Amino acid sequence: MGMAQQRGGTLTVGLGYDIDTLNVYSTGFLGDVQAAVVEGLVAPNEKAEYVPVLATRVPTVQNGGIKVAADNKSMVVTYQLRPGVKWSDGKPFTSADVKFTWETVKDPKFIAESKDGTEDISSIETPNDLTVIVNYKRVAPDFKSTLFTFGILPKHALEGKDLNTDKYNQMPLGTGPFKVTQYVKGQFVVLDRNPNYWGKDKAGVQLPYLDKMIFKIIPDSNTLVTQLKSGEIQMAYSVPYSQIPQLSAQAGLKVIKNPVLSWQHLDFNLKGPAALRDINVRKAMAHAIDRTTISKALGGYPIPISTVVVPVFSYSNKDVPKYPYDPAKARQLLEAAGYKAGSDGIRAKNGERLSFNIMSQAGRATDEDAQQVLIAQMKAIGIELKPDNKAGVAFRDARYKGSYDLFYSGWITSADPSYGVFFGTKGVNNGQGYSNPKVDALLATADSSLDPAVRNKALRDFQTVLMQDLPSIPVTSNPSMIVVTDKLGGFVPNPTNMTNFVNTSGWYLKK
Amino acid sequence: MSLSYIFKRLLGMVPLLLGVSLILFGVLHLAPGGPLDVYADNPSVTQEALDNMKRAFGLDQPLPVQYFRWVTAFFQGEWGFSIRSAQPVMEEVLARVPATLMLSGSAFLLALIVALPLGILSATRRYTGVDYFITLMSFLGISMPVFWLALMLQLLFAVQWKILPSAGMQTIGDGSLPDLLRHLILPVFILAFASVAGWSRYMRSSMVEVLSQDYIRTARAKGVSSRRVTYSHAFRNALIPVVTVVALDSASILSGAVITETIFAWPGLGRLFIESMNGRDYPVLMALLMVGSFALVLSNLLADLAYSLIDPRIRYD
C-alpha cells in the first residue's frame, strides 16, 4: 500500500483574509478552517454533487429518504446517521445534535448570518440515536445547500450557553478529521489530528494522514506569494493570475486550476439611464464584447461563457440566444435604433449621449483589468464608459441599492444555487431592478420541485428568457488558482462555497 | 511646571475627546454601507436574518440615539461588542496592543537613536560628501513606497538568502524571544527607515539654523571647542522644533502602522483598523479611533512637557 509511510507531517496554508469567527453559522467568510473541523450530514464533492458525510446516504426520493406529501406542499427528509461517530472530545454524536443544531440556529437570540433553511422546517423527530426525521413546510429542493451541510453543533457542549459569545466561536468542536488546538487572533490557527475521527481509508488505515494543519493569516497577496516562494507556507488559493507564471516556474510548487462556481458579468441598471432600458443598446454592447481578449488580458485563465449558469452544472443551457463578438453588427444595431455618432465619436439620440459610469470593485486587479478592456471595446462602437470603482462596503452598498449605471463583477454560488436571489423581482442581490414575471415563475418552479426533469427544464428555460431580456451579459467564468507544494498528495480542489478544505482527511505529504 | 498644570491639561482633554468622538461617529456613519453588508455578500442570507441582526446590534435606532448610547457606555469603560467577531471590543483591542507596541515602539526608538546623530552629523559636515550621502539616503527613504521596499527586502532576506522570515510574528510552535526578534527585524527596519529620513532632515535644518546664530559665533570666538559648541550649546536649542515633530509622530506608536502591518502580516492595531473599516464594524472602529485620538492629544502634552525639560526658559503654570 505504501500509504502508511506517508502519514504524518504538517501542512501550512496561507489565508488571504483575517478570520472573524470560527463558527460556521456566524462568519462573514466561507470558512476554510471550519471545513476541516466541523462536518455536516452531507457535503458537495469536486463535481459539486452531494455525498454523505455524517449521514450514511444522501436522501433522495428514489432511495426513500425524501417523501413528498400528496398535496405537494410539504416533505419529510429522513437521515440515517453514521454509527460510531464521536466528537473530538470523545462524546458520541447522535441525532440529538442534529435537532439541537436546528433549534439553536433558528433561535432569534442567536445572531447568525446563515439562518437559511431553518424557517422551512416545522419539526424534527429523533426516534433513535441514529435516525433524524425532518419535516419541511414546503418542498425544498435546495435543502442540502444550507443548514445540515454547513455543520452540526455539539449539544453536550453548547446546551444552555449563549452561542453569540461562547468560546465555541474561537474553538469550535467538531467531528471532522482535525480539531482546533490553538487560535491566535490575527495570526494563525493550529489544527491537530482528531484521534477520534471516524474516517478510515480503503486499507483500513485511520484518517487523516496529516498530523497537523496550520492556517496562517496573511492579508497581503504579494506577501502570500513571497511566503510560498520562501517555503514558509505550502498552500494558497485565489492567487492573482499575474503571479501564476513566476510561481509555476518555481521548483517545488505546482499550480492547480479550480473551476469555481462563479461567473463574471456586466450588469445594466434598469432603473438608471433610459438608454440602458433600450434592448438594442444592450444587444449592441453584448456584440461589442470580445471575451477572448478579456481572457488573454487576464493571462488566458478565464473561460468565455454565454449563460449565467456555469458549465459544471448539467442544466447549463448551451442553446441560449448568443451575442457573438461582432462590432459591425453592434454599430448597425445602434445606428438603426437612432444613436448617431457625435463629433467626439460618442453616439447620442435626442441629445442623450451613450456615456455611462461602470462600477467594479476597487483593488480587485482581475476585475479592474477586464474593466479596462471593456471600456476600450465599447469605445470602438461609440459608447463611452467611465470607471467608477468602489471599495469594500461602499461597493456592496452600491451593488445592492443599484447606484451605478453599469456594473462589472462576479457572483459565486453553492452547489445547489437558487438564481432567484440574482434575477428574481424580489431577489436580495437584484440591485439592478430586473423584473420579468416569466423568470419569476420559472425560478419558483425550479425552487419548489424535486423532480430533476422539471427543475432542469425550468432552469434551462430561465436562461433562455434571461438572455433574450439581457439584463446582464455573462462574460467569463474565472477559475481560482491554487498553488501547493508538489509534495501534497490526495488533494482535489472543490469548486463550491464549502471551500477546498471540505475533504482534508485524505491529504498527505510525500516524503 | 506644576502638577496642577498637568491635571488641568488632562481635564481639558475630556471635552476635546468628546467633540472628536461626535465628529468621528458622524463621519463613520455618513460613509456608505453598514456592518451587515458583509453578510449580504452571501446569497443565502435572508432579509429576516438581516433584520434580526440589525435589532440585536441596535442599528435600527436613529443615529443620535445610537451615539448617545455609545458615548455613555464608552466613558463608563463599556466598549461593547465587535460586530465581526462578537467578542468584547476591549478584548479585541487589547489583544492587538502588545504587537503594535512592540513593532511601532521598537521602530520609534531605533529611528530616534539613528536620526538625531545623523542630522547633527549632516549639519556639522555641511556640503561635504557625508552630508550629500545622508541627504541622498533621506530622500530615498522619504520617497520610496513602503510596500515596494518591503517586498524587495522580503525577496532578498526570505526568498534568496532564507535568513529571515518574510512575515508573521512568530514561527508557529516557537514563541521564544530570539524567534520574535528575528520576525521584528524587517518590519522595524522598514518602519524606522521612513522616520529616520524625515527626522534627520528636521534635525539637520534646525541645527544649521542654530549654528548660524550669534551666540554660537561668540562661543566659537571665545575658543570653545567645536565639539562642546555643537553638543552643549547648539544641540539643546536645535532639539525643540524636532521634539514637536517626533512627539506628534509618537502617537502612531498606538495607532499602528497600517501598511507595514498588512505587508508583514503583523497582528497589530493598524490591521485591526483596516479589517474593521472594511466591515464597518462601528464599535471597534470607534474604540480604535478614540485610542488614536487619545494618543495624539497625549503626545501633544508630552511634547509641551519635553520643551520645558530641554529649555528651562519655557514654563507652564
Automatic annotation (TrEMBL), chain B:
The keyword Cell membrane applies. SUPFAM superfamilies: MetI-like. It is a multi-pass membrane protein. CDD domains: TM_PBP2. Belongs to the binding-protein-dependent transport system permease family. It comes from Deinococcus aerolatus. It is found in: Cell membrane. This is Peptide ABC transporter permease. Keywords: Cell membrane, Membrane, Transmembrane, Transmembrane helix, Transport. The keyword Membrane applies. It comes from the Bacteria. The chain crosses the membrane at residues 12-31, 99-121, 133-160, 180-199, 238-264, 284-307. Signal peptide: none annotated.
